[in-house]
């Protein structure tokens, strides 16, 4: 790809199978490749079971990949074996989880939750420094320092998600994987958390992998989007382009199903059905760049069809 | 407002919960009607009281709840005054409910055919064989493939979307007059959600059920509802037809809700979040409960509770902004855009095409 920006993460042909060789083998992630550039937000969307969460977890090395390469900052993640190497890696890459109720230890005070990373990585000089760091972090995410001696149950869902964000930021990571960070929150609170994430990104030059099924929110927060289905990425491209001019039939179908808060639009909605049988034929498919930066998983004989679609959509000249 | 076609009339409902911390005033003076064959959507955030309201219709309030005041009239009888035994005859037969989580609302140890047949045997006194036969018809109706082969399966053998279809089959098997759907698609993927919503619309047309639809997803409301009630802090703050609420909203909270959603053409920049969090209902604020989070709050909002002001025959909003003496304010840009659309829609009086968008 002719792009001068620095790639912070490269995923090459990642495969993550479970129960390999058994009858119930699951190919959760099956030959997935994508790059994420420094400072951008990459949105990964798909239905439940599409493998988007597994892909995220494989990147942070919670699983041993079946095959493929994950290169973070020029370093192959699967070759990190010693504890020390893992330690250094996980300081640079952090995760925010979906469920703000289950992802915070109910028996720990907020200050200890937030400071856990600081303690593990030895980032505080002394107790006073630790307290100061925690208070600064809480302020960064819009909570106040009085909150630090409380327990998670004393907070609302939105506030808990802020605590989770503060915890992720504590070790000053470069890269954050946010796995459905807002799906458990109310609409008015979702916008608060999304705004906070965007603001932090600018201030601290963070790179996000944003995993979600809410397409309208993903389109809004992401620079680029990857669409997953059955463990494979079917389409990758700039967020607006994927959303407004989807080329793959699955993306079209997915977007046509998103409810829009406009009764007039809803009365005239036409839902596009998706025929998934084509995905299951045994043709060899790879990611093909149909328009600049816009990739489709296609077999050789499908390229012409997608190119024509891109021409029709005005993405490239015919 | 004596409307002959009202199926349910809720008047002045007040419900408190007794907790160790004190009395939580969960429902504070709520009134609404449900008309025959319509879909009424109740929107609001968690804790706004939308689920408590509908649970009271089913007589399913938690033991620490107390109905302080009000009535729920169903066929001329007050549901609140009914005994648990009487409620058992109504629940599942006349008023049925679909819950949010299809993973936990089915009995994992019972075959699905039996679960669908159970209400028929209980309420209609059918023999097992007839009930199972009808259950099979219901499975076909809700679109389970190979119903004969699957009627003896257990819930774990189905996917989330299929389970929600089974839950709907159970709820509809007695052809209830009222169906309460509490976030029925929140746990599902968008593609499955679209199928389930289409199914509900289709079934509503066939058996003429009235639906109360509870959700916080305004996109779903836009597609499903005939009328919408917006709840905040235990009160209805605005209600009207779906077009009135989406294109001509009047309450600042409704503005905030519509404004905080990214629309198709929201460019980058920040979303207009509603600042702050909902009030603590242990000690509800005086006046307009939304005042503390509203950019449009006036002095009176912190002193006196706004009554409902009439916008049209079908549209009412409880905000002092509608008082004749209130200063003129300009709503957020997105709302102005919507109101322009509303003005344009009013002119030609286009007949509302109720053509189902199935295909």
Automatic annotation (TrEMBL), chain A:
Its main location: membrane. One of its GO terms (molecular function) is ATP binding. It is a peripheral membrane protein. It holds the Pfam family ABC_tran. Coiled coil: none annotated. Residues 9-255 form the ABC transporter domain. Keywords: ATP-binding, Nucleotide-binding, Peptide transport, Protein transport, Transport. It is found in: Cell membrane. InterPro entries: AAA+_ATPase, ABC_transp_ATP-bind, ABC_transporter-like_ATP-bd, ABC_transporter-like_CS, Oligopep_ABC_C, P-loop_NTPase. Belongs to the ABC transporter superfamily. This is ABC transporter ATP-binding protein.
From TrEMBL, chain B:
Residues 10-258 form the ABC transporter domain. Its main location: membrane. It is found in: Cell membrane. The keyword Transport applies. It is a peripheral membrane protein. The keyword ATP-binding applies. One of its GO terms (molecular function) is ATP binding. InterPro entries: AAA+_ATPase, ABC_Ni/Peptide_Import, ABC_transporter-like_ATP-bd, ABC_transporter-like_CS, Oligopep_ABC_C, P-loop_NTPase. It comes from the Bacteria. Coiled coil: none annotated. Keywords: ATP-binding, Cell membrane, Membrane, Nucleotide-binding, Transport. Belongs to the ABC transporter superfamily. This is ABC transporter ATP-binding protein. It comes from Lactiplantibacillus plajomi. The lineage of its organism: Bacteria, Bacillati, Bacillota, Bacilli, Lactobacillales.
């Amino acid at each position: 790809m002719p792009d001068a920006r620095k790639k912070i993460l490269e995923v090459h042909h990642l495969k993550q199978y479970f129960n390999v060789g058994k009858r119930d083998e699951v190919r959760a992630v099956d030959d997935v490749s994508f790059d994420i550039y420094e400072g951008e937000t990459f949105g990964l969307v798909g239905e439940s079971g599409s493998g988007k969460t597994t892909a995220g977890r494989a990147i942070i090395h919670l699983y041993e990949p079946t095959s493929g390469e994950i290169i973070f900052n020029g370093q192959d993640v699967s070759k990190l074996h010693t504890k020390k190497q893992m330690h250094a890696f996980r300081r640079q890459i952090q995760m925010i989880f979906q469920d703000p109720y289950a992802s915070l230890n109910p028996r720990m005070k907020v200050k200890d939750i937030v400071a856990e990373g600081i303690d593990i990585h030895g980032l505080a000089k002394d107790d006073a420094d630790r307290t100061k760091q925690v208070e600064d972090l809480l302020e960064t995410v819009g909570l106040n320092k009085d909150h630090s001696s409380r327990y998670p149950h004393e907070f609302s869902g939105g506030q808990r998600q802020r605590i989770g964000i503060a915890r992720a930021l504590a070790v000053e990571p470069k890269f954050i994987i946010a796995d459905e960070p807002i799906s458990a929150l109310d609409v008015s609170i979702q916008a608060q958390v999304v705004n906070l994430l965007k603001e932090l990104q600018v201030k601290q030059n963070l790179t996000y992998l944003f995993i979600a099924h809410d397409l309208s929110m993903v389109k809004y927060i992401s620079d680029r989007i990857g669409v997953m289905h059955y463990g494979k990425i079917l389409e990758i491209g700039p967020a607006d382009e994927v959303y407004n001019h989807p080329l793959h039939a699955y993306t079209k179908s997915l977007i046509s199903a998103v409810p829009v808060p406009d009764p007039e639009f809803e009365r005239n909605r036409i839902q596009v059905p998706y025929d998934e049988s084509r995905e299951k034929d045994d043709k060899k498919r790879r990611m093909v760049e149909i328009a600049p930066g816009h990739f489709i998983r296609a077999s050789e004989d499908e390229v012409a069809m997608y190119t024509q679609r891109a021409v029709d959509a005005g993405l490239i000249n015919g | 407002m004596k409307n002959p076609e009202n199926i349910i009339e809720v008047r002045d409902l007040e419900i408190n919960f007794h907790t160790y911390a004190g009395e939580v005033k969960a429902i504070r003076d709520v009134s609404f009607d449900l008309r025959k064959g319509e879909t009424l959507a109740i929107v609001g955030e968690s804790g706004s009281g939308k689920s408590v309201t509908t649970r009271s219709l089913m007589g399913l309030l938690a033991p620490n709840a107390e109905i302080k005041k009000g009535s729920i009239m169903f066929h001329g009888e007050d549901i609140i005054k009914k005994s648990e035994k009487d409620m058992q005859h109504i629940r599942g037969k006349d008023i049925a409910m679909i819950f949010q989580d299809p993973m936990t609302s089915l009995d994992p140890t019972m075959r699905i055919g039996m679960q669908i047949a159970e209400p028929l045997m209980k309420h209609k006194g059918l023999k097992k064989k007839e009930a199972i036969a009808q259950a099979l018809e219901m499975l076909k109706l809700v679109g389970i493939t190979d119903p004969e082969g699957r009627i003896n399966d257990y819930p774990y053998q189905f996917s989330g979307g299929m389970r929600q279809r089974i839950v709907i089959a159970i709820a509809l098997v007695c052809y209830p007059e009222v169906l309460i759907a509490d976030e029925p698609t929140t746990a599902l993927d968008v593609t499955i959600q679209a199928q389930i919503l289409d199914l509900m619309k289709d079934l509503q047309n066939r058996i003429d059920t009235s639906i109360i639809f509870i959700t916080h997803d305004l996109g779903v409301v836009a597609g499903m509802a005939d009328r919408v009630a917006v709840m905040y802090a235990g009160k209805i703050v605005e209600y009207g037809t779906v077009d009135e609420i989406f294109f001509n909203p009047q309450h600042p909270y409704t503005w905030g809700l519509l404004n905080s959603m990214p629309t198709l053409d929201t460019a980058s920049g920040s979303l207009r979040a509603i600042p702050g969090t909902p009030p603590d209902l242990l000690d509800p604020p005086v006046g307009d409960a939304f005042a503390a989070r509203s950019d449009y709050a006036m002095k009176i909002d912190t002193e006196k509770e706004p009554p409902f002001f009439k916008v049209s025959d079908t549209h009412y909003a409880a905000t002092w902004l509608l008082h004749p003496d209130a200063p003129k304010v300009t709503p957020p840009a997105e709302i102005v855009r919507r109101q322009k659309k509303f003005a344009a829609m009013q002119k030609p009086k286009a007949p509302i095409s109720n053509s189902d968008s199935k295909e």
